[in-house]
Amino acid sequence: MYRKTYVEIDCEKLENNIKEIKEKYNDYKYYIGVVKANAYGHGIESVKYMIKGGINYLAVSSLEEALKIRNIEKEVPILILEPISYDGIKVAVENNLTITIDNKEYFDKLLKDKINIKFHIKVDSGMNRFGFKNSEDIKYVFLNSTSSLYLEGIYTQLFSGVGETYKKELNKFKTLTNNIDLNKIEIVHLDRSLTLEQHDKNEFETGIRLGILMYGFNKQRYALSWKRKLLNKILNKKDNFVPSKLELKTVLKFFTEVIEIKDVSKDEIIGYGGMYDNKENVRIAILPYGFADFSFINKSYVYINGKKYNIVVNYMDITAVIIDDDIKVGDKVEIFGENISIREASRLANVNVYKLLTSITYRVPRIYNYKGKKKEVEY
Ligand SMILES: Cc1ncc(COP(=O)(O)O)c(C=O)c1O
User: Domain span at residue 321?
Assistant: First the structure.
């Protein structure tokens, strides 16, 4: 790495997060690690440490993502969550991948073409994304699957894990599957990170899909903003969320460094067309990261040597912050991680942590730190 803008992943914390989840929720047979979008920005090298922690299945969005993981992990089962286009089937079979089926026609085509592959049925319990919406079709696939076109799992994506919405979604799932015996299907998975803790496990569930929890974020019941609390009070809306009992740690830190320092007098401009209107003489530090490294830089701050410094401009590759005499070229800069938490950074950028994390681009190398031993990976 020559340009010192990088992400550091604490792999031990990642491993421990999964152990913590498994210890508190030990009733599942399949812990499915959701590693789409380059493992939520953490990079797919993270998968190794998830497996060490106890993940025994992976899930990704596309065939392309699955193949990247299969390159580094030969054995672990991988489920592709989006239905894949039919021209990818041969490659999926060759790479021992599990596909999602969400309609009868697709299933029939596989049957007719004598394709040997494992699949999961996706049920649409209300989100109107992918999924069967007809119980007869589900029954048909259940009855006609074979040991070659093998029905290994069935799942849905829940919008909510609490209250009336959850009840409605669950009932819809049950109604759509009431023609089949769920106990005859190896992996039944409905819940994801933020619904796991919100209700008791249904007896028929054998798997759980874990995304954002693994990376260290649980439902923060008490983190509701005062505006939200007030609104809930006015609308007489109860905050139904169960407080999390998981002790998790975030694992990702994002750093850069000071590469230049400039004194700018108040009659000079900073940035294209004078983006920053400096009303007085200022000293600025130039940092080698911009919106091509990370989309959500805004006019907030970074952390250098124990203090926060305001960002004044950012470009595709460069960001400038106003500094004082304490800062020198070569100083390490935290964009977020420890002193500016990821939650704080996402609040400042006005996006959720999913968006924040997945917006760190391929240009940023990831350094995997496992108990002090470091490995750098470019994506
Ligand atoms: C189908 C499906 N399952 C599970 C997940 C993981 O969600 P979470 O990160 O909330 O666990 C996602 C995330 O987008 C998803 O689309």
Answer: 252-377
CA distance 346 to 332: 21
C-alpha–C-alpha distance, residues 4 and 256, integer Å: 6
Smallest CA separation from ligand 1 atom 1, residue = 157
Q: State the CATH number of the domain containing residue 82.
A: 3.20.20.10
Quick one: three-class SS letters along 78-89? EEECCCCCHHHH
- What is the token pair recorded at 302? 């970074």
Whether the model clears a pTM of 0.90, i.e. scores above it, the answer is yes
> Could you tell me if 359 and 348 are in contact, meaning their C-beta atoms sit under 8 angstroms apart?
no
Do 113 and 156 have their domain in common? yes
C-alpha distance from residue 164 to each of 159, 168, 234, 238 (Å)? 11, 6, 20, 12
Q: How far is the CA of 212 from the centre of ligand 1 (A)?
A: 8
Q: Which atom of ligand 1 is nearest to the CA of 61?
A: 16
217 inside domain: yes
Cα–Cα dist 351/306, whole Å: 26
For residue 37, pLDDT beyond 80? yes
Establish if 298 belongs to a structural domain.
yes
Q: How many structural domains is the chain composed of?
A: 2
List the residue whose alpha carbon is closest to atom 8 of ligand 1: 211
Is the CB of 346 within 6 Å of ligand 1?
A: no
Question: Ligand 1, atom 10: nearest CA belongs to which residue?
Answer: 193
Q: Whose CA is nearest to atom 9 of ligand 1?
A: 211
- Say if CB 132 and CB 175 are below 8 A apart: no
58 CA to centre of ligand 1 in angstroms: 12
**Ligand 1 contact, 192 CB (< 6 A):** yes
Model pLDDT for residues 310-322, shown as the tens digit of each residue: 999 999 999 999 9
Ligand 1 mean position, distance from CA 34 (Å): 7
Q: Measured in whole angstroms, how far is the alpha carbon of residue 189 from the centre of its chain?
A: 18
Q: What is the pLDDT of residues 44-80, one digit of tens each?
A: 999 999 999 999 999 999 999 999 999 999 999 999 9
